[in-house]
Design brief:
This protein has about 575 residues and is mainly α. It is built from 27 helices and 4 strands. It has a two-stranded antiparallel sheet. A two-stranded parallel ribbon has the order 3-4.
Length: about 575
Amino acid sequence: MRQAGSNGRHRSGGAPGGWVWLSRLVLPGMLVPFLFLLAQVPASLFAASDTALSQTPSFWQQVSAHLLTTYVHDTVILVFFSALTCATLGIALAWCTCLYRFPGRRLFEVALFLPLAVPPYIAAYTYDGIFSYTGVCQTLLRNVFHLSPTQANIALPSIPFAIFIFTITLFPYVYLFVRTFLHRQSATLIENAVLLGGGRHVRTFFRVILPLLIPSTLAGVTLASLEVMNDYGVTSYLGLHTFTTAIFTTWFGTGDTVTAIRLSLLLVASVLVFLLLIRGLQNREKYRIVSSKEREYRPQPARGMLKWTAFSLCFLVSLLSFFIPTLQMLAWASTRVDITLFAGLLPCIGNTLYVGGMATLIIVFFAVVSANVHRLFARRYDALCASAAGMGYAVPSAILSMGVVTTFASLDSVLAGWFPSHALPLLGMTVAMLCYAYCIRFYCVGYQVLDTGFSKIGPIYTEVSRTLGYGVTQTFLRVDAPLIRHAIASAGGLVFADIIKELPMALTLRPFNFETLGTRVFEYANNEAIPETAFPSLCIIAVCVVVILSSQWYAERAGYALS
């Protein structure tokens, strides 16, 4: 007999070994790279400036004396203002599309998801090309308006430009969470506020709705801020000195692993402080709707100035965040249609599909196992595994890459003693290393979607099947899998989209002569061949658009939000 625990999960006295032991592989698998990296910490902390541990003995002294302040300044400025603008834009767009009917609202509801398909580094390359001397803006000013602006007059400074790029590509994180809240819980609140004389617009928003949006807004802001901390493509291209660019520069540029580890420790400490701050803000005041009469709010017709303000805001954001970059890349691609270029990209497409598909299958498999075990048996270790699911996503890719490289280097040294006749490396700098890093980083995405899917179907059908004598595996294949097929498809799609957009780990962990679409785009941009980035960028965006729209369709059919 199963008894429901205090947390709503169901306990079982006789858990089948296969499912439980597979789920218990997740936590050690995620911790191993960080444990190997932590093993290097004492040497990096206590290494003297003249030891052999550092190939550039005085570099840490130079960093701490002259560059560390710049790293802190650029990172804090980017994270703070990007989070602020993403929160403002996401809340405003969710408020408009959820509460009002205006021309094009249905189209904008779909279009505002699409910026998730544009990686920030691709948007940065595209807008830089648009504002370049041969770009659309300066060409239009010269040929139509007969003006000759200098690059200094038309180009944005690096930090504001980076904040603009992060805002237009990352605001959907906030938009999705806030939109989900407003769809589910806004009707009674707004109606009561109107009855009490609050009006339906500004006063209701600031006095009733905005305080209730704090938890969902902070959840979206957290994801957006972690993406900013993790970014390497935008910051390195614009020459910004953040912690991530500093780690890669010291690691690969100077070969100084001691300084790279010290910078990684500082970045980890910063991420932990940030997450604790967010958790403190979320727990400061708890908001909960206790009425049993909650229902979805039906959007009301917007009239007058409000109608055109909502339309203009949604149109402008959709244009800047997705349609302008995509149309510009289509224009570049149409002028560079070359069979040789396409043939050169075929291996990149194949490599991207291969490593992304393999990592996605592994993530979805273990996420299904862990979510099902956590739902059915609710043991302490399983709950710990579930709590640690987001660890990989919270740690920046630069630190995760160092941990994975350290782990595989140690494994190669062990295997060298077992197989002395084989050339090294046996595991390091292989596809397995890159796939392993992807599994750690994006496991959280698959697990959260599947855990939500399992929570929607509940334990009733599973318990009936077990009562009829079916085992856990048979029950899953015959009962659970058909019920959560939409969640499995959504989890796989979202994980795959995140993998093909990811850049830092692909640059650092890929095997020699192993190019993906993301690394090819980065290579073209570094060589100042911005128009050549169009075709591989369009391939990434096309796959992500299909995945995001399909996942959202599956999510709506299954009755849970994409966020």
